[in-house]
Backbone:
């Protein structure tokens, strides 16, 4: 199974961003930073760094080495004129890192 979760949307990038902002709040996360890298690419790409302090504390409680996983990143971009939303699945990444670095998440 892939470590990536990517979904296509029929909404515009702007509409997806507005829905994402509300979903972040609804799930008790905060947006720490947004990178707009359209100038670097030929198509739109926005990367949101999001964090939930309680979840971050739980992750760090498993091992400070897992700090490299924080904050979580969600991308909203276009690919071949299709809006996409994607993220690397944190549970998969944490599991892989903890197994490679002393088994912090067992």
Residues:
């Amino acid at each position: 199974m892939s470590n990536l979760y990517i979904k296509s949307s029929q909404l515009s990038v702007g509409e997806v961003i507005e829905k994402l902002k509300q979903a972040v709040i609804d799930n008790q996360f905060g947006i720490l930073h947004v990178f707009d890298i359209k100038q670097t690419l030929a198509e739109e790409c926005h990367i949101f760094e999001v964090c939930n302090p309680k979840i971050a504390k739980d992750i760090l409680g498993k091992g400070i080495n897992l700090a490299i996983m924080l904050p979580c990143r969600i991308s909203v971009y276009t690919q071949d004129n299709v809006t996409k939303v994607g993220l690397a699945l944190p549970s998969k990444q944490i599991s892989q890192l903890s197994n490679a670095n002393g088994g912090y998440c067992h």
Notes: Helices lie at 13-26, 53-62, 90-100. Residues 4-99 form a domain with the TATA-Binding Protein fold (CATH 3.30.310.70).
